[in-house]
Design goal:
Layout: H1 2-5, H2 8-25, H3 41-45, E1 60-62, E2 67-69, E3 88-90, E4 93-95, E5 109-111, E6 114-116, E7 134-135, E8 145-146, E9 165-167, E10 170-172, E11 185-186, E12 191-192, E13 198-201, H4 219-224, E14 232-235, E15 238-241, E16 244-246, E17 250-254, E18 258-261, E19 270-272, E20 277-281, E21 284-286, E22 297-300, E23 309-313, E24 316-318, E25 323-328, E26 331-335, E27 338-340, E28 345-350, E29 353-357, E30 360-362, E31 374-379, E32 385-388, E33 391-393, E34 405-410, E35 414-417, E36 420-422, E37 433-434, E38 438-441, E39 444-445, E40 461-463, E41 468-471
Parallel strand pairs: 13-14, 14-17, 15-18, 16-19, 17-20, 18-21, 19-22, 20-23, 21-24, 22-25, 23-26, 24-27, 25-28, 26-29, 27-30, 28-31, 29-32, 30-33, 31-34, 33-36, 34-37, 35-38, 36-39
Antiparallel strand pairs: 1-2, 3-4, 5-6, 7-8, 9-10, 11-12, 40-41
């Protein structure tokens, strides 16, 4: 008896393949045969089938023999008598599964010798460790073990704070405030910020506790609520007229869709001083009026207190009477922001440490200003001094001043890279870039500047006449940045690189 059983599957498989080959020779399509199946593109292609062809419910596909098998119909004395599709010998019968063995999250329950759908959360207990511990009951994945369930049933399934959103049965980080109950998404981590840690502002808000249901109407009231727990200010869309000063506080200000205009003459939009640790994202600051103090943002160490920290991201700072950003002895980060049409210059940095990358800096300064696009001065000690992947154009400066990027009183070597400094308005011997101890590589500069990878090619802006300084698809700067560069995104948040290497400037050309 054993002799007649052993090898039964091998003989059956050979017979099935012979029939299939004969069918091909006669020109019939195997997909038209209800008993035929294939599960991979490679095996299906051999039979002229362009897509996987499964079996009817209750049958199992043997992809070696391309046959639909009925679990429990083949007798066996051991697993060697069974097919790969029915690999277990259970009670002398070939089976797809044996208890907990053989099934997958797509069909997790072993019953009647075959794997089937889940019906309750407990059916997916074996898949908790692989983050597929929930049983979906609706939709395309009904009966499968998934990371999270659709609809109201899935509320709370995504327990990882960094991936709180259920999207097509998979947990991911939030990407927009609207995805979070608190209306605040920390896009840097993907986590929804807890409502009890947020201070809410809204134009005309009359609240005094600055909660979601009772927002405050001014930055001053919001800052008064800052504590060690509540240190995120969510600024509702709209207009605010206020000059804001932040001292020894740690706070994040999220202002996408909001515009701040300083109300006082010679007042800056936001001033960060000693001990302040401030991140500002998304906010627009515009129309500061007056003379030398009417900056959009100012960060300054005023005494011997702790160095102020200012982190700027995705902001629009424009049309201010003085500098867009004026930083003195500050720890400054400026990323993915626009500094435009600021009469005193785009960005002025004196001392401190700083990172300036992925910014559009244009039409700042004028024929009498001390700075144009970027003015760097008083750098006397080695530290973090990064300027890369910026687009700096159409800025102006006084006679003899380098209108794109000026280095003044810099006594330690600074290395700048991967930037466009092109078409800035110079006069009286001024140039696009200049000053002692500032070198350039892999940059597009109107003047000829020595350095690896530098060029004087026209950048090929998309529409400079409309202040669109993204690169056109025909730009000669595509793939010309430093091959060793590692910056992961561009001004818009698009992934770098899109081609064989990164593009020079703030924008990465996308298909």
């Amino acid at each position: 008896m054993i002799v007649s059983v052993v090898g039964k599957y091998a003989r059956a498989r050979a017979a099935w393949i012979a029939i299939a080959i004969a069918g091909l020779a006669l020109g019939c399509r195997q997909v038209d045969n209800g008993a035929f199946c294939c599960t991979s593109a490679d095996t299906c292609a051999k039979f002229g089938v362009t897509a996987p062809n499964g079996c009817a419910e209750g049958l199992v596909c043997d992809d070696a023999a391309h046959a639909c098998l009925v679990p429990g119909t083949d007798h066996c004395s051991g697993p060697e008598d069974c097919s790969p599709a029915l690999p277990f010998c259970v009670n002398q019968t070939c089976a797809q599964c044996d208890g907990a063995m053989g099934c997958s999250a797509a069909a997790p329950v072993c019953a009647d010798l075959a794997c089937g759908a889940c019906a309750a959360e407990g059916d997916c207990a074996a898949y908790v460790a692989s983050d597929l511990g929930h049983c979906e009951v609706a939709g395309a994945k009904a009966g499968q073990c998934v990371a999270c369930r659709s609809g109201a049933d899935g509320a709370g399934d995504c327990a990882d704070p960094a991936a709180p959103i259920c999207d097509q049965n998979a947990c991911r980080g939030c990407t927009a405030d609207s995805e979070c109950a608190s209306n605040v998404c920390d896009t840097s981590t993907g986590a929804c910020v807890a409502e009890n840690t947020v201070i809410y502002l809204a134009p005309g808000g009359s609240g005094t506790d600055c909660k979601l249901a009772t927002p405050c109407g001014t930055f001053a009231l919001g800052l008064a609520q800052v504590t060690g727990l509540r240190k995120t200010i969510k600024v509702g869309a709209g207009n605010y007229t206020e000059a804001v000063t932040i001292g020894a506080k740690t706070v994040t200000i999220l202002g996408a869709g909001a515009t701040l205009t300083p109300g006082a003459i010679n007042g800056a939009g936001i001033v960060v001083t000693d001990g302040g640790n401030v991140r500002v994202a998304g906010l627009r600051i515009t129309n500061a009026v007056g003379n030398g103090n009417a900056d959009g943002l100012r960060c300054a160490l005023l005494s011997s207190g702790p160095t102020p920290v200012l982190d700027v991201e995705a902001m629009m700072i424009d049309s201010n009477a003085a500098q867009g950003i004026d930083a003195s002895m500050c720890q400054l980060t400026v990323r993915r922001s626009s500094l435009a049409s600021n009469a005193g210059g785009g960005l002025t940095i004196a001392g401190g440490e700083w990172t300036v990358e992925n910014n559009m800096i244009y039409i700042n300064g004028g024929l009498s200003s001390i700075g144009g696009g970027v003015l760097v001065s008083q750098i006397t000690t080695v530290g973090m001094h990064v300027l890369r992947f910026n687009t700096i154009t159409k800025n102006g400066a006084g006679s003899g001043v380098n209108a794109g990027v000026e280095c003044s009183s810099v006594t330690v070597p600074l290395a700048f890279s991967n930037s466009i400094v092109f078409g800035n308005q110079v006069q009286g011997g001024g140039k696009q870039v200049g000053g002692n101890n500032c070198s350039w590589t892999y940059s597009d500069i109107s003047d000829t500047v020595n350095g690896m990878g530098n060029t004087t090619d026209d950048p090929g802006f998309a529409d400079a006449g409309q202040n669109n300084y993204h690169l056109s698809t025909s730009s000669l700067l595509e793939d010309k940045a430093d091959p060793a560069a590692t910056l992961a995104v561009d001004f818009d948040g698009d992934v770098r690189p899109q081609g064989t290497a990164r593009d020079i400037g703030a924008d990465e050309i996308t298909p």
